[in-house]
Amino acid sequence: MLKSIFTASVLLGIATASLPAQAQTLCNTRTHIVAQLTDKYGEVSNGIGMQSASQVIEVWSSQKTGSWTIIASRADGVSCILAAGQGWTNNPEYAQAFDERVGYK
Question: Does residue 19 fall inside a structural domain?
Answer without folding.
Answer: no
